[in-house]
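For homework, think about our next protein:
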Amino acid sequence: MHPVSLFFAVVILGTGLHATPVRQGPKVLDVRAAGVGRLIDDVSFTDLDGRAGRLSDYRNKKAVVIALTGVGCPVTRKYAPVLAGLEDHYAKQDVVFLYVNPILSDDMAEQKTFASELGIDGPVVADSRQAFSRALQPTTTTEVFVLDAARTLVYRGAVSDQFGIGYAHDKAKNDYLRDALESVLDGRRPRVAATWAPGCALDSVHPDKAKVGVVTYHNRVSRILQANCLECHRKGGVGPFSLETYQDVCGNAAMIRSVVADRLMPPWFAAPAHDGEASPWANDRSLSAEDKADLLAWLAGGRPEGDPSLAPLPPEFPKGWLVGEPDHVFELPRAVEVKATGQMPYVNLFVETSFAEDRWIGATEIRPAIPAVVHHVLVYVIPAGEGGAGKRRAQGREESGFLAAYVPGNSFEIFDPGFGKKLPAGATLHFQMHYTPNGRAVLDRTRLGVKFLEEPPADEITVAGIADHRISSPPHASNYSSSKTLSVPGDVFLTGFLPHMHLRGKAFRY
């Protein structure tokens, strides 16, 4: 999750008033509710110079940026030079910019003059038919939309956090649009794919339902699967079968329908958000109600394949480390023999570090050699000086917190700027390995890759375990509960939770 501090002062006269902050910047949004991953209609337009075009004209470009403008919005005006600079920077990288004014009452002559003064090269469009507004459903005048070559929406939101409502900075701390474009050009998903963009509010425009048409594999279902399933269900992935092709999906249609209807897949068991509210979880894997309805209806119906020209770009999955090349790799001291059948107790192995001074970590990634048999990995830190006593306490180390963790589909963590974890000098790493035999005897030698920070972070991330080792559920009890408490020394940001009870528990509440 992304910790955000918002400081403001409000004078309230009377009672019952809602204190709205005067200072408002970008906020990270739920990508499912924002429509990221959807196919955008092939909108046709005529720019202010009378030139006609449509979005499909740019199918040979690597990315299309649709930037909303509005000469009457002060925040939009502040971002205009930034957009012009980005357009110039990415012009040689096959990225095209379109500038769309959704304000019907704006003076188009002034808009044209304004664009000319900035040196904008891309088409400037007055959305008089509201075609872009119907297709994109923008909420403010500063919102930008990034489409890939297949017209799949990969980012929507703020240009950056340099300007907002009630503030302006000399430079941005988060360049959302630039980061999104770099991700698309590298074949990656943007780390932040949706934000609220501070600007002048826009009325919602009802989408043209007549243009939606029949849901097919190529225009809709393939995108749902790419966004939610292919990370694991692909050749070489940890899923038991691939869902990369139309034939793959049809061949496993009954199983997909069963696990999606029962909310077993995608694997996400936290309580859903209330109706109309965004999920509070940054890594929510559940399907949106609309995606789930469309997928189940397609699976239960005739499963039309549709027009291949409307298919999304094939996803590119990194073959190496997802966090980039690590600064240091720690490997299990020996290969672990995982038997073919039955159960295995936890395997506890220890790796000495050789650093003479403390190091600060900005990213971790755990890579099992045989992912199909690794249920989970937890890596703990034993401080220097504990020696054999620290190793003997390995089974009860949950309370000390972990340095890194792995479960299928969640193998790495890149900490937000200004945050990091400490690796003390001379520490020993304790790898807690849980294997699940899958019918074939194999050898696994899991590795942990870390990337170091150049200087100590402003905030240290610490992990604290709240473990109860005295659970004693009576026979046949259907709702036995147990509770533990953790006291903290002062105010803290909570960045995440990791409930862990295998199949023995029904629910956690924090």
Observations:
- The first helix runs from residue 31 to 34.
